[in-house]
Amino acid sequence: MNETFEDIINNKIKQYHDELKSVNILIAGKTGVGKSTLINSLFEGDYAETGVGKPVTEHLVEITKNNISIYDSRGIVLQNYENVFEEIKSFVEERKNNNSESIDIAWVCIVEGSSRVEEAEIQLVDIIAELGIPVIIILTKALFDQGLKDEIKELCPKAKDIIRVHAKRIELDDGYVVEPTGLNTLTEITYNNLSDIKKNTFISEQYVNEDIKNEKAKSIIEENLKICEEGKINNEETLINIITNITGLLGFNFKFDLIFEVLKNIQKTDINLNDTSCIEQLTVKEIELICNEYLKSIENYKRKNKANPNLFKVKESKSTPLLYSSEESSESEHSSNEDIPKKTKKSHIMKWLTLFMPSSKVHNLFSLRTKINNNSEIILPKEPAQRKRKESKILKVFQKKQQ
Ligand SMILES: Nc1nc2c(ncn2[C@@H]2O[C@H](COP(=O)(O)OP(=O)(O)OP(=O)(O)O)[C@@H](O)[C@H]2O)c(=O)[nH]1
Ligand SMILES: [Mg+2]
């Protein structure tokens, strides 16, 4: 018996998934910087902490879901870094020539709260970059930039990018909530730094950033229609290619009903997709209409059924980490971010800040503001990096004051 249109598409989608090359991400950084927490946020689970992953070396654990593997380096103490560096080097080298095993990108995590970069952390970035791996620096537990990002940019010119991430939703004793941020940006920049062959896997497997998926889906439609118009592929092949690729890309299980709905909506129910001659009579414009409507229907279907598969799906706020009371959270979800700080009281902010930085630093931060407001003398540190940080802090307070 001949294969039906539905069978052909389902087989092709299976093939599409089989051919995706695994994306391998190495995540490195000092112990306690938040590497495992970041992975758990991206994967929505307890993968890293519960040790579900497969041990690869003394320090590396492989955590795999579908076609993405993340190598989490556990408990690295950079005081004794030579051994760790050697371990990372030989791990990367061993896999270099195997396309499905080679490390495609490294995320080096440096904690933002400490406001101090260690020599070993800079070396870690350089060593991985010199192995030919694109390195993205992630400033973890990111709450406010005190000039650390700029400082690291200067210290680590080999890094492709630096992203500030707060990976975890935290609720404080008095009900204040900090939502995750930076994960969408991390996804986008990671995608941009992958080779073309791995880009397909990455966009198919990630669910943080739906925009990248939709853009890619549109370009798939355009490319196939173009070669159809040039007569290089026939209508049936065009339709099958487009439907297969966008279905796979959007992480969707093919539903024949959806195509049928599309044909009904555009009043083309007389088209029999199981009859090749019928498909060949369609114009390119009609194929374009069917494909664009199909894409829209998948989006609607996902929205209605909240059919977001489970990898890389993270709820996060749109800009810098927010500080708001959980009682206000449901209504403030759509309100503008500028409204939120006004609702927070200084005492709350100070209490909250002491969770992430030594209380002496919090007091310094607030006394700086007081000194500027009273025009009293400010003493700058002698050490250049510290001095630069303090100057940038002062500038920020002044700029705020002038607004
Ligand atoms: N507030 C806040 N805490 C975080 C964040 N990320 C991690 N943490 C906390 O930091 C601590 C260390 O996090 P881990 O994810 O275990 O750090 P790690 O880098 O995997 O540490 P090792 O496995 O020892 O190398 C935990 O208590 C986390 O809850 C964050 O974005 N914000
Ligand atoms: Mg860990």
UniProtKB/TrEMBL annotation:
It comes from the Eukaryota. CDD domains: Ras_like_GTPase. Residues 25-141 form the G domain. Pfam families: MMR_HSR1. GO terms for molecular function: GTP binding. Residues 331-342 have a biased composition (Basic and acidic residues). Residues 323-343, 384-403 are annotated as: Disordered. This is G domain-containing protein. It comes from Piromyces finnis.
